[in-house]
Amino acid sequence: MRLGTTTIRSYTNTNRKYMPNEIKKESEHNHGFKSKFQEAFDAFTPIASPQAVNDEIARLINLHRDSMQTKGTARLIHSLIDLTTLSATDHADHVYHMVSKVNELDSTSPDIPPVASICVYPNFVATVREFLGVEGVGVCAVSGGFPSSQTFTEIKVAETALAVKDGANEIDIVLHVGNFLAGDYNAVVTEIEELRDVTRDVTLKVILETGALGSLENIQRASIISLFCGADFIKTSTGKEFPGASLPAAYVMATVLKEYYEKYGIRKGLKISGGVRTVEEAIEYLCIVKGVLGEEWLNNELFRFGASSLEGNVLKALQ
Q1: Of 82, 106, 172, 232, which residue is the catalytic one?
Q2: Which of 63, 75, 189, 301 is the most buried (most CB within 10 A)?
Q3: What 8-state DSSP symbol labels residue 242?
Q4: Which among 124, 108, 175, 125 is positioned nearest to 147, based on CA atoms?
Q5: Which three-class secondary structure state does DSSP give residue 17?
Q6: Is 290 a catalytic residue?
C-alpha cells in the first residue's frame, strides 16, 4: 500500500513485532502527498459528534463501573502505572528515593503487583537502571525535546539514543504538534520514523498532546499517523503546558486502536497521562478501554497510566 510520497511496509525483528505498515519517506516533492494522507484517514471510520461520543462514554461507564469497584481493580491499576517524576527540581537522590520505594513495596507487599515502569528524564535513566531491583519493571524515559518537541531533530535523535544506551527500555516522545496543526504531516512522519529507528528494540510511546489538538478529528488523525510510523503506544499528553487526559480523547484513541487491530491484526497500546489522580478517575478510563477494546487490553502490555500521585491513592485504597 502506498501513501503518495510514502510507502507502507512491514517488518519484524527478533524481539518485537512492529506494526504491519510503517510509513517510509521516499520524496518530498509529490504534490499528491496530503491527499494521500487523507486517503489513509478516510480508511478509518469517521468520529461521531462530540455529544455522541460523550453519550457513549457515559454508557460505558454506567455499564462497567460498579463491577470495577473492587480491590482487585485497584491492584490492576497499580500494575498499569508508569510511576513518573518529571520536575525541574528532580535530582539523583530524589530519583533514587522513588526507586527505593518501588523496591521496598515489592519486598513488603508481594500481593500488590509492581508498577509497570519508572518514568524519568533521560539523564536519570542510569540512576533508575542501577538501583531498580524489581523484575519486570520497565525503565522509561521521556525524550525528543519533551515536553514541547521544539528542538532540532538531530538533538532528539541523540537524546533518545543516549537514553537507550543508558538502559531505557521504554521511550516516550512527543509528536510535533506545531507541524501537525500546520498540516505538514510529512515532517511529522519523518521525525517519528527517525526516532523509531533508534528505538527498534524498546517500546516507543508517542504523545499526541491531545489538549492542544483542538478537535476529536485531529486526535484521530494524530493517532493514525503515530501508529503508521511504528508507535507501540499512543499516549494522551505530557501533563505540562496543555490540558491533560480527557475521557473523549481516550475514547477516540481507543476506537482507532480497535480499528487498527481489526485491519492489521496487531494490538497496540494506550497510555493515559495528565491529571489522573484518583482510583475513581482511573476506573472511568478502564471502563472505556474495556468497553471499546475488551479485556485483552487490561494489562500493562497494552494499557498504562502515566502518573505520580495516582500510585499513592491506589495504595491507600488497598490498605
Answers
A1: 172
A2: 189
A3: S
A4: 175
A5: strand
A6: no
pLDDT in tens, 19-49: 333 333 333 334 444 467 888 899 999 999 9
- Residues 162-214 have pLDDT tens digits of 999 999 999 999 999 999 999 999 999 999 999 999 999 999 999 999 999 99
- Name the grid cell of 256: 482507532
Question: In the numeric block, which cell numbers belong to residue 8?
Answer: 507502507
CB atoms within 10 A of CB 189: 24
Inter-residue contact 128 to 154 (CB < 8 Å)? no
State the catalytic residue, choosing from 156, 205, 268, 271: 271
Decide if 36 is catalytic.
no
Place of cell 497510555: 271
Tell me if 270 sits within 8 A of 291, measured CB to CB: no
Task: Give CA–CA dist 280/290, Å, rounded.
Answer: 15
Query: Residue 54: CB partners within 8 Å, gap ≥ 6?
Result: 247, 248
* Catalytic residue status for 172: yes
156, 205, 232, 235: the active-site residue: 235
